[in-house]
Amino acid sequence: MLKLQQEIRMVCHNKENVTEEDLKKMTWLKAVIKETLRLHPPAPLLVPRESSEETQINGYDVPKGTKVLINAWAINRDPKFGQNPEEFIPERFMGDTSVDFRGNHFQLIPFGGGRRICPGINFAISNIEMMIATILFHFNWELPCGIIRDEFDMSDAPGLSVRRNEKLYLVPREVDHTI
Ligand code: HEM
């Protein structure tokens, strides 16, 4: 979070608010959002599919009309595609990696892929980027009294759409950018 705040406050130095132009320069913000969607895809099983014809996959016969559930949550965490897949490491999306979530890289599919890919990607990402950048620009965030970082529950509640297991309580401290 501190690294992200540094980036946002450097890009928006002497400004009152974050603008869309500013977001283009925030590479760490984009990496943090990708990494968050990798570890916590809101629709972990995507939308169910049905096989349109009989086929074979890895030696298994798949009859026509089979319901197919794609475990994007597990695919995003497959050790084949990166080191320490259970850990939050946005650096994996920095540098020369071009892996994105637009359905071209099957190791990262929080928005699905193919013809049924989420049509709201651009709307979702612009909103998430602006919202995160704005709240981190204007506030410092602390954990409530008595909660320590290492014990903070980051688990997901199971379901077709996923949310946090525990409600998120944070304490905002307003930052005076004029100082
Ligand atoms: C972080 C935000 C979002 C995530 C992670 C997300 C994820 C997904 C996923 C995984 C699917 C299924 C894709 C597949 O099975 O291949 C989907 C479908 C869909 N999403 Fe999103 N979505 C998000 C935001 C939005 C927004 C903002 C809108 C609309 C404004 C939207 C509209 C839709 C629609 C209409 C479908 C159904 C597409 C179809 O079945 O043809 N989504 N989304």
Rg, nearest Å: 19 Å
**Helical fraction:** 25-40%
Total DSSP helices: 5
CATH homologous superfamily identity: Cytochrome P450
Order of helices and strands: HHHEEEEHHEEEE
Q: What are the distinct ligands in this entry?
A: protoporphyrin IX containing FE
Domains counted in the coordinates: how many? 1
Q: What proportion strand?
A: 5-15%
Mean model confidence by pLDDT: 93
Number of strands: 8
CATH class: Mainly Alpha
CATH architecture: Orthogonal Bundle
Structural category? alpha+beta
First-last Cα distance: 21 Å
* Rough outline: elongated
Any low-confidence stretches, pLDDT <50, length ≥5? none
What does this structure look like?
- This protein is α+β, with helices and mostly antiparallel strands and about 180 residues long.
- It contains five helices and eight strands; from the N terminus they run H-H-H-E-E-E-E-H-H-E-E-E-E.
- It has a two-stranded antiparallel sheet. The protein has a two-stranded antiparallel sheet with strand order 2-3.
- Strand 6 and strand 7 (about 165) form a beta hairpin.
- It is elongated.
- The protein starts with a helix and ends in a 5-residue tail after the last strand.
- The mean pLDDT is about 95.
Keywords for this entry:
Cytochrome p450, 28% helix, two-stranded antiparallel ribbon, monooxygenase, alpha+beta, binds protoporphyrin IX containing FE, 179 residues, single chain, 8 strands
